Amino acid sequence: MTSTPITPETTAAETADADTLKTRRIPRGEKRREEIAAVAEGVFLDLGFTETTMQIVASRAGASKETLYRHFGSKEGLFSEVVRARSARVYGEAEGDFPLQGEPREVLHKLGFNLLRLLLNPDPICLFRIVVAEAPRTPELGRIFFEQGPAQILQQLTLYLEGAVRQGLLTCSDSTLAAKLFLGSVVANRHIMMLVAPGWEQATEETIRHHVDEAVALFLARYAPDAKR
Fold it and tell me: Tell me: the pLDDT tens digits for 33-79?
């Protein structure tokens, strides 16, 4: 994540832009709230949480600080909204069409591939870094991120595994634990590398698919009905 220095010149330019935009008709209510949150996401990703101010977001969104405070209450509230929206988009795309149906190998591969491919994109990684950095000071941000993202995937996968067990397709005595193990095997190593050593090893679509294939094979070796105990 790069940090763009804020100078008197850029602040003046942003103020001029805001004055111009204020002459336009601005949508009200929920639509306007979503528009401001979308602008704020770009600012947070560009500057980070600490360097972002409500004035910068207001200027770029063509709004007043009063409007931002009315919609979000504080910078923390605005960031919470950004985290909520981004997490819902990222993990919603990874989920696809829930409830999942079909054979475990096909379902697990689709979920694992979509999830890993999305998480390795720059924007989710950047947002993840910001949440990790701010969570000790604002634990609520970490809770919102987890509940809106990873917890949703875990819950949906657990429900699928429970159904697969009832159909005799799998033998998981603890479906929640099995779901955690599968998601960990798919995400953990690749995600850590992107967080702490970006560019160390390039993840292509082929390498992602191979990684997920092996994670699925490992899972089925333990939980398929005919797996050797």
Answer: 989 999 999 999 888 888 899 999 999 999 999 999 999 999 988 98
- Continuous H helices in the chain: 8-22, 29-51, 54-61, 65-72, 75-95, 104-119, 122-134, 139-148, 150-166, 175-196, 205-223
Neighbour tally for 178: CB within 10 Å = 22
Per the CB < 8 A criterion, the answer to whether 67 and 58 are in contact is: yes
The architecture in CATH of the region 8-73 reads: Orthogonal Bundle (1.10)
Q: In the structure, what pLDDT confidence band is assigned to residue 154 with cuts at 50, 70 and 90? A: very high
* Residue 223: partners with Cβ closer than 8 Å, 6 or more residues away: 104, 170, 171, 172, 178
Rounded to a whole number of angstroms, the distance between the first and last alpha carbons of the chain is: 47
Cα–Cα distance, 142 to 156 (Å, whole number) = 20
Which two tokens mark 142?
A: 């970490």
Domain ranges in the chain with CATH number 1.10.357.10: 78-221
Global pTM value: 0.71
Q: Where in the chain is the domain with CATH 1.10.10.60?
A: 8-73
CATH topology of domain 78-221: Tetracycline Repressor; domain 2 (1.10.357)
Per-residue pLDDT tens for 193-203?
A: 777 777 677 77
